[in-house]
Each structure stands twice: as structure tokens, then as C-alpha cells.
């Protein structure tokens, strides 16, 4: 080393600055990479140590020199630990890291594990109607999985899609159905989960999840529900915490697009108008999930009535469908649940029973010919027969269960779709 160059204090100070940033970079290398590249870290560590050794030699004050020697000694022993970890990694093929490195990996993988879900359902056939939504998802997720060779060069599949629409129209169900259909790993998280974390943890959760899924070899689906509460329009009044969470999410969404990675991000919201335009822009496709039309309403109710004995004519079904105009899928499920439970309520109230030819016990009134008075608790459980569900049950259910989405809300969605959808 040319020591003459270091006669002047400015040069020595510069050397101190260089070493400080060297160690800062090292700590970033530990912090930022999910899969730690130990060989790279060791190489960089060595070059930092060389610089530190040179500085120890040129430092004029003996006192400071001895402090630097101590730092050098500690840093060398740290370097040896990492080298040891790398050696045992390559020997038995298992992950063995210095304790602090291992802790970080465990924290990250725990955070990611919390978002892993087993999707519910069988596939896209679970979804009634919504043909355009299924077509887009098919094109963006299923087709690239089946024919990856079609999606090379400039032809990239969309990998960030927003589903918006009134509550209960099946947005969450679509996410599960898609993951089932694609048979890929499903990560699901709601904005409320992210925001309820400690300050600083929310950003880490977003960063870890995106970094991990982006680097995966296999395709996967990341579902973020209630995205509006995470991406509200930015304002001067908002706190630092919420601003930095948004910034982190913006960074991750950007990287997801530019890496053309295997992670497909699906987000859902009831309030698309609350979403900041910076986020809106990053959804390559925004799909409106509307209330079910006539045919879909019929299908949703009929699906739930499978294996239930009903006494409903074609006219009755038409009537039910007409009377449930404006009901969401979730509303329809509530109506049907109520209607098919009605005959069960009568069992409890009935004190009289009639025994049928096939030895079943049917509830009846005191006036029924052949009716016998027996409390419900004494009726053989496996012999109880329930009467069929009728139009009267549905009429009562519809009366008691009003629709939850108003006409003015629907207008708001339509307006949004024509302006920004
Ligand atoms: N098109 C549909 N096909 C099948 N089931 C549906 C459909 N729409 C709604 N449902 C049923 O309605 C219920 C609510 O659906 P889901 O939770 O997916 O709605 P959502 O749009 O996510 O609501 P929210 O916006 O309140 O989160 C579910 O039980 C689902 O089975
Ligand atoms: Mg939902």
C-alpha cells in the first residue's frame, strides 16, 4: 500500500467513509435478499476487511489504531463463521446459517406461511355466470400455464388484475376457484391483516410476500382482499406508516410487472373509487363483478337446493327469480338458507305425528286423521321425515331477507366502469 498518499487527513477521512459504506452495503445484503447468497457476501466481506486493515495501518493515533484492530479481529471471526456455514451448506446440502441469518429467514418464512391458504372449492365451474371474468382469468392464468411457449417476447400475460363490484358478488370465491383450477400455490391476505401489524412490520410483510413469490420457479396466485383500505388516495393528513406501506406496495407491484414473473396478483374491492390512481394504473386489467342476472340467480339458488326435496313448479322458479332482482349471490344464499330451513322449524313446533307407509314420521296437526301426540325428543331420529320446500317458504324468505345492495350503489359502479374501469 502506498502510505505517502495518506499523509493528508482528508484522504484518511475518505478512507473511513469508504469503509462505513462498505459495511452499510454488507448489512443491506443480509437484510434485502430472501435467499441469501453466502458466496457473494463472503467475497464482499473480504474486500471490506482488506480496506479496514489498510486503514488500521495508516491511522496515526495509536489509541484509534488499537480500536480498529479490535474491530478487525471481530469482523474476521464473523467472516469465518459465515465461511463455516457455507462449507456445511455445500457438504450436506442443508441450509445452515449463522444464528442471526437463520433467525431472519425463520421470521420471513413464518410471515409467508401465514398467508398460504388451501383454496376452497373445485374450480371455475363453481362460479355461476360471470363469463367475461372467467374468460379473462383463463387467458391470464390458465392459458400461460398450459401453453407457456405462446407467451414469449412481447406477448406477456397480465399478472395484476383488480376485481371490483358490490359486496357478495363472488369476488373472493373467484380467487379460490381460480387457484383450484390452476392447481397452484395460493397466498391470500386481507389489507386489514397487513395494516393491523406493528409499524414497520406491514412493509416487511408486503416485501417478504412479493419477494418470495416473485422468485419462485412455479406459478402462484397472490390474493389481496379489501385492497381499497391499503391503497386509498394519498393525502397530506395521512401518517408516515400508511404512506410507507403504500410506497412499498407500489414498488412491489412495479417489480412484479417488470420482472414478468410467475406470481399472479389478484386484488378485490367494493370501493374502487377510493383507490389511488397510482395503484389503479398498475392493474393491467380492472374487471367489474356485477350482481347476478336472471339465469345466474336461478342457478345459484338451484345449486343450493341440490339434495333438498322441493315442490316448485317452473312458474314458481320464475317467480322466485323475478322477486330476487337486485339480490347479490350472498343475498340469494341467505334467502335459500332461510327457505330450506323452514320445514325444520315446524318439526320443533309440532307435537303431532303421522307415520307413513314407509315407516317415516311426518309432523301434522291435531286434526290430521291418524295423527299421534308424541314430543319431538321421543321420535326416532332416523325416522323423521321433513316435508318438501314450497313456494310459500321462498316467499317468506324473500320477504324477510331484503337485498343488501341499493340501486344508487349500482349506478355508482356503472359510472366508475365507464369512467375508469
Ligand atoms: N357468481 C357466483 N357463483 C357462485 N356463488 C356465488 C356467486 N356470487 C356469490 N356467490 C356466493 O355468495 C357468497 C359470497 O361470495 P364472496 O364472499 O366471494 O363475495 P365477495 O364479492 O367477495 O363479497 P365481499 O365484497 O363482501 O368480500 C359465497 O358464499 C358465494 O358462494
Ligand atoms: Mg370478498
Automatic annotation (TrEMBL):
<dbReference type="GO" id="GO:0016197">
    <property type="term" value="P:endosomal transport"/>
</dbReference>
<dbReference type="Pfam" id="PF17862">
    <property type="entry name" value="AAA_lid_3"/>
</dbReference>
<dbReference type="InterPro" id="IPR050304">
    <property type="entry name" value="MT-severing_AAA_ATPase"/>
</dbReference>
<dbReference type="InterPro" id="IPR003959">
    <property type="entry name" value="ATPase_AAA_core"/>
</dbReference>
<feature type="domain" description="AAA+ ATPase">
    <location>
        <begin position="157"/>
        <end position="293"/>
    </location>
</feature>
<comment type="similarity">
    <text>Belongs to the AAA ATPase family.</text>
</comment>
<dbReference type="GO" id="GO:0016887">
    <property type="term" value="F:ATP hydrolysis activity"/>
</dbReference>
<keyword id="KW-0547">Nucleotide-binding</keyword>
<dbReference type="InterPro" id="IPR003593">
    <property type="entry name" value="AAA+_ATPase"/>
</dbReference>
<dbReference type="GO" id="GO:0007033">
    <property type="term" value="P:vacuole organization"/>
</dbReference>
<dbReference type="InterPro" id="IPR027417">
    <property type="entry name" value="P-loop_NTPase"/>
</dbReference>
<dbReference type="GO" id="GO:0005524">
    <property type="term" value="F:ATP binding"/>
</dbReference>
<dbReference type="Pfam" id="PF00004">
    <property type="entry name" value="AAA"/>
</dbReference>
<dbReference type="Pfam" id="PF09336">
    <property type="entry name" value="Vps4_C"/>
</dbReference>
<dbReference type="InterPro" id="IPR015415">
    <property type="entry name" value="Spast_Vps4_C"/>
</dbReference>
<protein>
    <recommendedName>
        <fullName>AAA+ ATPase domain-containing protein</fullName>
    </recommendedName>
</protein>
<keyword id="KW-0067">ATP-binding</keyword>
<dbReference type="InterPro" id="IPR041569">
    <property type="entry name" value="AAA_lid_3"/>
</dbReference>
Amino acid at each position: 500500500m502506498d502510505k505517502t498518499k495518506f499523509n493528508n487527513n482528508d484522504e484518511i477521512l475518505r478512507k473511513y467513509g469508504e469503509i462505513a459504506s462498505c459495511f452499510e452495503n454488507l448489512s443491506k445484503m443480509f437484510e434485502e435478499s430472501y435467499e441469501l447468497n453466502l458466496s457473494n457476501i463472503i467475497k464482499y466481506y473480504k474486500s471490506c476487511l482488506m480496506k479496514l486493515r489498510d486503514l488500521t495501518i495508516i491511522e496515526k493515533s495509536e489509541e484509534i489504531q488499537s480500536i480498529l484492530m479490535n474491530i478487525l479481529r471481530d469482523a474476521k471471526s464473523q467472516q469465518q463463521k459465515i465461511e463455516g456455514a457455507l462449507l456445511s451448506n455445500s457438504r450436506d446440502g442443508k441450509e445452515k446459517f449463522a444464528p442471526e441469518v437463520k433467525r431472519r429467514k425463520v421470521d420471513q418464512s413464518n410471515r409467508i406461511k401465514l398467508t398460504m391458504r388451501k383454496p376452497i372449492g373445485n374450480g371455475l365451474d363453481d362460479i355461476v355466470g360471470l363469463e367475461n371474468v372467467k374468460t379473462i382469468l383463463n387467458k391470464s392464468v390458465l392459458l400461460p400455464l398450459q401453453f407457456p411457449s405462446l407467451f414469449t417476447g412481447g406477448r406477456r400475460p397480465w399478472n395484476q388484475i383488480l376485481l371490483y363490484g358490490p359486496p357478495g358478488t363472488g369476488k373472493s370465491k373467484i380467487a379460490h376457484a381460480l387457484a383450484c383450477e390452476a392447481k397452484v400455490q395460493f397466498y391470500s391476505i386481507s389489507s386489514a391483516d397487513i395494516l393491523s401489524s406493528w409499524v414497520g412490520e406491514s412493509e416487511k410483510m408486503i416485501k417478504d410476500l412479493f419477494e418470495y413469490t416473485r422468485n419462485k420457479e412455479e406459478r402462484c396466485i397472490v390474493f389481496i382482499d379489501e385492497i381499497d383500505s391499503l391503497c386509498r388516495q394519498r393525502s397530506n393528513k395521512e401518517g408516515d406508516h400508511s404512506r410507507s406501506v403504500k410506497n412499498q406496495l407500489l414498488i412491489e407491484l412495479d417489480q412484479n410487472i417488470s420482472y414478468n414473473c410467475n406470481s399472479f396478483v389478484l386484488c378485490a374491492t367494493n370501493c374502487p373509487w377510493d383507490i389511488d390512481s397510482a395503484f389503479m394504473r398498475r392493474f393491467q386489467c380492472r374487471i367489474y363483478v356485477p350482481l347476478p342476472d336472471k339465469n345466474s340467480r336461478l342457478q345459484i339458488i338451484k345449486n343450493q337446493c341440490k339434495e333438498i326435496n322441493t315442490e316448485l313448479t317452473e312458474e314458481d322458479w320464475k317467480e322466485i327469480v323475478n322477486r330476487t332482482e337486485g339480490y347479490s349471490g350472498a343475498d340469494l344464499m341467505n334467502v335459500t338458507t332461510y327457505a330450506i330451513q323452514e320445514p325444520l322449524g315446524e318439526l320443533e313446533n309440532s307435537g303431532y305425528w303421522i307415520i307413513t307407509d314407509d315407516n317415516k314420521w311426518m309432523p301434522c296437526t291435531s286434526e290430521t286423521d291418524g295423527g299421534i301426540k308424541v314430543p319431538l325428543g321421543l321420535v326416532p331420529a332416523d325416522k323423521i321425515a321433513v316435508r318438501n320446500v314450497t313456494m310459500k317458504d321462498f316467499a317468506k324468505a324473500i320477504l324477510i331477507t331484503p337485498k343488501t345492495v341499493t340501486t344508487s350503489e349500482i349506478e355508482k359502479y356503472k359510472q366508475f366502469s365507464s369512467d375508469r374501469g
